[in-house]
Specification:
The structure holds two protein chains of two kinds. By secondary structure, chain A is α/β, with parallel strands linked by helices. Chain A is built from five helices and eight strands, in the order ββββαββαβαβαα. In chain A, strands 2-1-8-7-6-5-4-3 form an eight-stranded mixed sheet. In chain A, strand 6 (78-83), helix 2 (90-101) and strand 7 (107-112) form a beta-alpha-beta unit. The longest helix of chain A is centred in the middle third of the chain and has 12 residues, at 90-101. Chain A is globular and about 60 Å long. Chain B is an alpha+beta fold. Chain B folds into four domains: 6-109, Sulfite Reductase Hemoprotein, domain 2 (Alpha-Beta Complex), CATH 3.90.480; 127-289, Sulfite Reductase Hemoprotein, domain 1 (2-Layer Sandwich); 306-399, Sulfite Reductase Hemoprotein, domain 2, CATH 3.90.480.20; 413-570, Sulfite Reductase Hemoprotein, domain 1 (2-Layer Sandwich). In chain B, helix 1 (6-27) packs antiparallel against helix 2 (33-41), helix 6 packs across helix 8 (260-274) and helix 7 (251-258) packs across helix 8. Chain B is globular, with a radius of gyration of 23 Å. Classes of the chains: A alpha/beta, B alpha+beta. The interface between A and B is large, with 37 and 40 residues.
């Protein structure tokens, strides 16, 4: 099981991430246990899942848009976004859209090539859970959230840009 | 200068600490080459042909003498005593040590400088007109807008891992001296009928392997929407820009593949969500940024200076230099002076640490302690009293910075090329030098008139060869260095209403030894065909086309003869 950082702490992960098979076939959904299913599986079989809101997770690959689940984000306890390679920045936009535009309030989890030096920006964009790549040191990674004490732009964590906060504080 | 407040300073200090930790982990073997590469690049650190190269940001080309002295100190202490001013208005050090780089960044932070995002797939240094704030044709002073964008684009959490690098240029004057049409986003300040400030927004311009002139996505964007609109462009790019092929990853390819109109629709749709949101700019913020810029306290002076008039009449060399290297100022009695870094025999843009100190002393005495770096790789004192020009000229002449070649053929823009850069296919500095030697007769040079000659050592186009009136590109053929020539490019408006253009290749490439001859033949053709000396090289190319030049250079013979001649020349 990969290590999970959740809300800036090391946490146990009870979710099972289901992936496509080697030929791209959709995975079987086990009878019991909490699962995070690929977007395609959700889209083709969503009526198979109970309407209970806290029992299912879905994951988006970097080339999959959050628009596909725009009207139903409250169905998911977890939405995971895959980073196929640490330098692939699409997941940052996906996360912001899920939080800011589609108002997703549940766990937003970064999966894939998730590395120490990228957690700060990921968290700013709305991720609160990080399934680090296996070789990463989770204890060391906890320190990374304090890398910068502020930021100029709007982000999920800082919805008011610095310039408005400066003006409000009366700083010249 | 924009003066940091405590938050600006803290962020830069925190960046130094972050990079120190990353470097330590890399040296301890806890970060892979590949992972560290992505991190060091966004701190300006390349691993070059012989050593690392550190690219230090000079935001929008504005530098104080205190900062220049620090750069001199760094060049002396951590490098080999010189630096190279690049076409991105940055300073590059060619011999720093990897393990000392965090210390260099810490030194820079003490004078409000950094190397943040000077490389890597992120926002690069914002560039602008090197005469911003003093030009007579100013619409707005672009510095405040550059600083607004600099802040917004620094450590942007969503856009720190873009498909590819991203360059934004801002022009605030009627003439485009910022080459906005060849940037990922170009912003050209305009005023509407009511006098309200806005920006014409161009997107998808660029040089490199697929040179393109930017597409006007908006004719007039009212200034409060500047950041939300750029954010919309970037979100579309970040999500849909190609990541499968590094050579197709710039925004220009997305604009081209989508089609400009479709791209515009997507941006507008995204903008509909962001428009009027919290990032919408307010007048108080622009005023706050303006107020953090130091401004010269100009004296009230007459428009002309009798001493200057007299010197111009009696000192011909001074008058020649004045005609080329002095630019008019919006304040009466002042002028902007370009210190040419293009002396024959010195790589264009190179300055030693001692020279930096001397230049800093001069800027303190003559130009309110500030200077500019131009994308033509020269340094500019923008606030010099006309009455000081003659004395200043003597001082910079003694230092070797008074080559009166601004706008002329020997004011060559040139990348570091194969002498330093691991990407280069060919050397560029020796070509520049050979051409400068050939055209060392000043009278002849002035007779040829305005001519931009730009040299790049590979198709990444750091020497902006596509927008040179004459552009030279180093190419590799079976391990040998060859040079392709294009003509007719122009970085800004050629004349009012005629936009920037990209050069056209004239034919097969040449050996290095042939280059001065080839340039001379192009010049001979121009001189033979020009209508008068008022018609510049670029005007003639646009009037008669490339063909006559081609014939003149290659003759009527088989085009492959150029290659054969080249082989003989290098044999």
């Amino acid at each position: 099981m990969a290590t999970l950082i959740k809300d800036r702490r090391i946490a146990a992960d009870n979710w099972r991430l289901l992936k496509r098979g080697p030929a791209g076939e959709l995975p079987e959904v086990p009878e019991s246990g909490d699962v995070i299913v690929p977007l395609a599986l959700w889209l083709s079989r969503r009526e198979d899942f109970p309407a209970h809101p806290k029992k299912i997770g879905v994951w988006l690959d970097a080339n999959e848009g959050p628009e596909a689940i725009a009207g139903e984000v409250e169905r998911f306890a977890v939405i995971a976004v895959n980073f196929p390679k640490f330098g692939d920045g699409r997941g940052y936009s996906i996360a912001r859209l899920l939080r800011e535009r589609y108002r997703f309030k549940g766990e937003l989890r970064a999966i894939g090539d998730v590395l120490h030096d990228h957690l700060y920006f990921m968290e700013q964009c709305g991720f609160d859970a990080f399934a680090l790549r296996d070789d990463q040191d989770p204890q060391a990674a906890l320190s990374v959230f304090g890398t910068f004490s502020d930021g100029y732009q709007t982000s999920v964590l800082r919805p008011t840009p610095l310039f408005r906060r400066r003006l409000a504080a009366g700083k010249p | 200068m924009y003066l940091y407040d405590e938050i600006d300073q803290k962020l830069v200090d925190e960046r130094v600490a972050q990079f120190r930790d990353q470097t330590r982990r890399f040296l301890a073997g806890r970060l892979s080459e590949d992972e560290f590469r992505a991190l060091r690049l966004r701190n300006g650190l390349y691993i070059q042909r012989y050593a690392p190269m550190l690219r230090i940001a000079i935001p929008y080309g504005l530098l104080s003498t205190r900062q220049l002295r620090k750069l001199a100190h760094i060049a002396r202490t951590y490098d080999r005593g010189y630096g190279h001013f690049s076409t991105r208005q940055n300073l590059q050090l060619n011999w720093p040590k990897l393990e000392e780089t965090p210390d260099i960044l810490a030194e820079l932070a003490t004078v409000q400088m950094h190397a943040i995002q000077t490389s890597g797939n992120s926002f690069r240094n914002i560039t602008t007109d090197h005469f911003a704030g003093v030009a007579q044709d100013e619409i707005v002073d672009s510095f405040a807008w550059c600083e607004v964008i600099r802040q917004w684009s620094t450590f942007h959490p969503e856009f720190s891992y873009l498909p590819r690098k991203f360059k934004i240029a801002v022009n605030g004057a009627r003439s485009d001296r910022a080459a906005v049409a060849v940037h990922d986003i170009g912003l050209h300040a305009v005023k509407d009928a009511k006098g309200e400030i806005g920006f014409k927004v161009l997107v998808g311009g660029g040089l490199g392997r697929t040179p393109m002139i930017g597409f006007v996505i908006r004719e007039f964007l009212p200034w409060p929407h500047l950041l939300t609109y750029i954010e919309a462009i970037l979100r579309v790019y970040n999500r849909y820009g190609r990541r499968d092929n590094i050579h197709k990853a710039r925004i220009k390819i997305l604009v081209k593949e989508r089609g400009p109109e479709k791209f515009r629709e997507e941006v507008e749709a995204e903008w509909a969500h962001l428009k009027d949101g919290p990032s919408t700019l307010v007048a108080e913020e622009i005023a706050r940024i303006e107020s953090r810029f130091t401004r010269p306290s100009y004296a009230k002076l007459p428009a002309t200076d009798p001493g200057l008039e007299a010197a111009l009449g009696s000192d011909r060399a001074f008058a020649t230099w004045h005609a080329r290297n002095v630019f008019p100022h919006k304040k009466p009695g002042y002028a902007a002076v370009t210190l040419s870094l293009k002396k024959t025999g010195i790589p264009p843009g190179d300055v030693t640490a001692d020279q930096m100190d001397r230049i800093a002393d001069l800027a303190d005495r003559y130009s309110f302690g500030e200077l500019r770096v131009s994308h033509e790789q020269n340094l500019i004192f923008v606030d010099v009293r006309q009455s000081d020009l003659h004395t200043l000229w003597r001082e910079i002449k003694a230092l070797g910075f008074a080559t009166p070649n601004l706008g002329l053929l020997t004011n060559i823009i040139c990348c570091p090329g194969g002498d330093f850069c691991s990407l280069a296919n060919a050397k560029s500095i020796p070509v520049a030098e050979a051409i400068q030697q050939r055209f060392d007769d000043l009278d002849y040079l002035h007779d040829i008139g305005e001519l931009d000659l730009n040299i790049s050592g590979c198709m990444n186009a750091c020497g902006h060869h596509h927008v040179g009136h004459i552009g030279i590109l180093g190419v590799d053929k079976n391990g040998e260095e060859w040079y392709q020539i294009q003509i007719g490019g122009n970085q800004g408006e050629i004349r009012p209403g005629v936009t920037a253009s990209l050069g056209k290749v004239i034919g097969p490439s040449f050996a290095r030894a042939e280059m001065p001859d080839v340039i001379e033949r192009l010049i001979d053709c121009y001189l033979a065909r020009r209508d008068s000396d008022a018609e510049r090289f670029i005007d003639v190319v646009h009037r008669i086309g490339v063909e006559p030049f081609k014939e003149f250079v290659y003759g009527n013979s088989d085009k492959r003869s150029a290659h054969r001649r080249g082989q003989l020349a290098t044999a």
